[in-house]
Amino acid sequence: MSRLVSGVRSLSRLISLLSLATASNLATAASRPAAQPSSFQVFRDVPSLRQLRHQLLRNERTVGFVPTMGALHEGHLSLIREAARENTDIFVSIYVNPTQFGVNEDLSSYPRTWDSDVEKLEKLNEELGRSGAPGSGQITAIFAPTSKVMYPTLPPSSDIDGQGSFVTITPLSSKLEGGSRPVFFRGVATVCMKLFNATTPDRVYFGQKDVQQTVIIKRMVQDFLIGTEVRIVSTAREADGLAMSSRNVYLGDRRRAVGLTIYKALKAAEDAYQSGKVSRADILGAARSITDQVLAEQRALTPSERSLFEVDYISLADPNTLDELDLVDPTQGGVLSAALKMAPLEENKPGEDCGLGDGKVPVRLIDNLILQPRA
Amino acid sequence: MSRLVSGVRSLSRLISLLSLATASNLATAASRPAAQPSSFQVFRDVPSLRQLRHQLLRNERTVGFVPTMGALHEGHLSLIREAARENTDIFVSIYVNPTQFGVNEDLSSYPRTWDSDVEKLEKLNEELGRSGAPGSGQITAIFAPTSKVMYPTLPPSSDIDGQGSFVTITPLSSKLEGGSRPVFFRGVATVCMKLFNATTPDRVYFGQKDVQQTVIIKRMVQDFLIGTEVRIVSTAREADGLAMSSRNVYLGDRRRAVGLTIYKALKAAEDAYQSGKVSRADILGAARSITDQVLAEQRALTPSERSLFEVDYISLADPNTLDELDLVDPTQGGVLSAALKMAPLEENKPGEDCGLGDGKVPVRLIDNLILQPRA
């Protein structure tokens, strides 16, 4: 069932629907009715994708792979553009992976926007086709598997003691994001191993924004002798600096403005490093003074004016081990990263744009900056 | 360093030796001085192996992969013969994987016999070349990596709470052998994932003797969408029925004779099933009566005459889940398996062949028989 054409599509979708177990999967499938991609094939299962891959291999073509959970934004597109520079063919996966969401996390509310995703990819493919530059590849395949394809034997568990087949990368997985989200990187590593095996790409593309993910994927590729190259692409940002994220649609105007604090705090810390500071106290102190100040300001406002948040962590870590640093070795640099939990709005104002979910969805923002080694 | 020719070999061996950390690795490397393979290449690292693999792929050749820990016997050779029937090229790995040995297990005493292994493979390659039958492949590559190649970042840990990059397959890994050997299948799955990634074989070959390993590898390939086929080859047995194993060299005459009890007990249970019995009590009772009887006989003998053992488990399990069965569904069949711990000899007799290690090495024997579905 490689090329989904109308009649076959409806039937196969019906069959998929019947075999789907969770509400989240139903939501995914239900949001896939209209789009009829023309410039690439959509694959819902592995064997036909593998067939295409083998054909490309025999023709000495190269595959760049961009794994996504859909809800595509400019950050994803920048990964694809980078992949197009280095490969003849680009595979994009769209799959909201349940095993990386903790039991109390936002799996069910994670944005699912199949039609607009396909539209964006079609448009990007046209752009890539027009560019016609030598070495400008195009998207050949979208891999949009069901959970039964990705987890063929046991149902996907995001319980820390859950049963199943998993990849674990310790101690990296338990640091930073892993502190708040104990199953997250087990889920990410597991699904990426599966996706890499299904697509056997020459190169894989990840965004710098999820810095711990980039470190863990690089470690996984190295430790498991995976025959692919890992490319990290700079974080795509809005004009004011906010890192693009699929979750930003839930922010709304008020929380978006206050959420920018994460970037400002990291910038202040980066400035401290660039002005010669190397101690944890000096560098993270600069970030903390920003978050403390903004939080004090917000608290002084009324519930209909303010946006409260909690600093989950602000970290200064070694770029390879992610161990916290007391001092930055200027020949090695470091990773500045942070997570803010944006609380739901307490009170909406009439006519205010409170974002998808009307300001009620808590949003966890993450961001990071790399402290480059000093020459 | 793909083709090891004399001068380069010595130098590269020296470099390897200098970078080796554990006593066990030193033992491995030290036992690799003389053999000069001619009909296949020996690879100690991944990039050059990967280059050969890509070349074979472009030439539409197929690769069958046989992972081993060396100490090759007829069982391994039967896997290679089977691979030769289905592939143009056979890759054999020889690597004693530390992460599958528990801290109190026999990693340091595991037999390392590089020269005789290479000799056996050379001889088998000649035989395969002579057979000249269409579709008779030959061994093209031996992959004999160092531990630094297989575990490039953190040192290989066989501690259950140890840090590193691992594949876990639960609950299958905790059953049967996993009950006595909690890190075993994590180590097996992890090293096989690495080896599969390094060799990207069309087909992989495992012996039926390690039945739980076959179930776990099949599950791993299915769950992680690995693009290879898993072939299971019947257990190679001595004339009297003892399953071949690299560890049998430690038995010596006396323990070898008594060790055959494992096969006799499983045979008695199989006979019970074939005569129409389906209950656990009837089938395993037949096995237990054999082990009980032999143990009673041995206990009645003097320390210089007897060989004591302990039944670790005798199991009747579902062939897919390895869950213990109370009743065999004759349309599904089942897996009969057992493990015996052969104790060290208490007292040697003058002139007695007590095996490698002089009867002092405890030997754990495992074996299994598949109860086929009845038509």
Automatic annotation (TrEMBL), chains A, B:
Pathway: Cofactor biosynthesis; (R)-pantothenate biosynthesis; (R)-pantothenate from (R)-pantoate and beta-alanine: step 1/1. GO terms for molecular function: ATP binding; pantoate-beta-alanine ligase activity. It comes from Penicillium argentinense. It comes from the Eukaryota. The keyword Signal applies. It catalyses: (R)-pantoate + beta-alanine + ATP = (R)-pantothenate + AMP + diphosphate + H(+). The keyword Ribonucleoprotein does not apply. PANTHER family: CYTIDYLATE KINASE/PANTOATE-BETA-ALANINE LIGASE (PTHR21299), PANTOATE--BETA-ALANINE LIGASE (PTHR21299:SF1). HAMAP family: PanC. Keywords: ATP-binding, Ligase, Nucleotide-binding, Pantothenate biosynthesis, Signal. Residues 1-29 form the signal peptide. Its EC number is 6.3.2.1. Belongs to the pantothenate synthetase family. NCBIfam families: panC (TIGR00018). InterPro entries: Pantoate_ligase, Pantoate_ligase_C, Rossmann-like_a/b/a_fold. This is Pantoate--beta-alanine ligase. GO terms for biological process: pantothenate biosynthetic process.
